[in-house]
Design goal:
Five copies of one chain form a homopentamer. In chain A, 7% of the residues lie in helices and 41% in strands. By secondary structure, chain A is mostly beta strands. Chain A has a domain at 1-10 and 23-31 and 38-84: EutN/Ccml (OB fold (Dihydrolipoamide Acetyltransferase, E2P), Beta Barrel), CATH 2.40.50.220. Chains in contact: A-B, A-C, B-D, C-E, D-E. β5 (77-87) of chain C pairs antiparallel with β1 of chain E, so a sheet runs across the interface.
Chain lengths: 99, 99, 99, 99, 99
């Protein structure tokens, strides 16, 4: 379960049947040093998150539950929340060695 | 669930029975900084993606669903879509620290 | 299954129904060289860990068990313990090449 | 699902009962830039791959299927194919930034 | 499924009920270049491995099987073997580019 930032969208015409009608977002995992990760996750979004918003992402069974099309489906990642805020008191310690 | 680029194919003669007749692609995960990842995923492809095309990749139960040979199979990754386009408004921010 | 340090909290108003009432922590995986990882995991916390405490984190079925809302839920990571102590006799060898 | 090179073997006398009689290989994931990854996966091998051969590796349910000892077992990774060849037309683009 | 070295132990008093009485080890994944990874995995150990020993680690269903407390448990990683020896004929090629 991750927090990530919505950086874009994916379109696919040729796709597995159970993906039809879903909105697929490109999500960049959030790092505590605020550096942008180049790694990118694709997630089905049933909530309607906007570009730039931070979202909660889940995988596997939790994602299938969130989309609500049963378990015989061809996707495995979903948005389950739009983040209002992160409170990170220990963020400042990120990437400092052995204090 | 990832977007990746099809960079090649894999052939295996000695293999688990349930892999017979499937087409296996080498897929390179897409990164938002457009740098090529050297990490490589193997995915069964029921759609017929071409070399150089971007595809949607899933793992586990979703992959078994996409291939449609039941759940007693020896593969775990599959192509579920061929990407028409990526719209990445926030791509430019990739790999820039703490703006 | 990981040990990580609680570095903050996440708030989300718009979220999947089964996430309501849960406390979500931002957790930074512990490394044996004590360097802070920037990678961040989100975990539901049924125990009440404080900022700065080290916790045990699990994923998937174990996380659903720990939260106790059944398996039809939209989360997949949970805190299952608050660490009293780490005893790491071989810690000093971290990041030394080929002694 | 990965392609990797068999770099060695593992022996264990004290082990979980369901691991008895299985051959465990050390496998190094293949990267498209041909650099050797130091990351190493352990996989049960029901096929009989040789040192230096490239193999297809799967995890979880697919691995349990491939070994054929049911699902109440203490291993989770298996060899499901010995690779005859990789055809990688886009390999040359590996690790080049933003062409 | 990984080989790793036992580098220490974890203690937790406040923990999920099904973790009681289990021994939790800190395990560092083995790399073929023998460099110490700083990444650390926590695994329940039913075998009794010592500090410094190399062990086989599994995740998910295989780990629940190895511990033998059923599938409604709050852990997901376990030791399934103590390694007697690694035979790695191709180890010397680790981390050399494109020979």
């Amino acid at each position: 379960m991750l927090v990530g930032t919505v950086i874009g969208r994916v379109w696919a015409t040729r796709k597995e049947e159970t993906l039809r009608g879903l909105r697929f977002l490109l999500v960049r995992p959030w790092r505590s040093d605020e550096a942008d990760s180049a790694e990118t996750i694709v997630a089905a979004d049933p909530i309607g998150a906007d570009i730039g918003e931070k979202v909660l992402i889940v995988f596997g069974r939790a994602a299938r539950h969130a989309i609500g099309r049963g378990h015989d489906v061809g996707f495995q990642t979903a948005v389950v929340g739009v983040v209002d805020g992160l409170d990170v008191p220990l963020q400042g310690r990120a990437n400092k060695d052995e204090e």
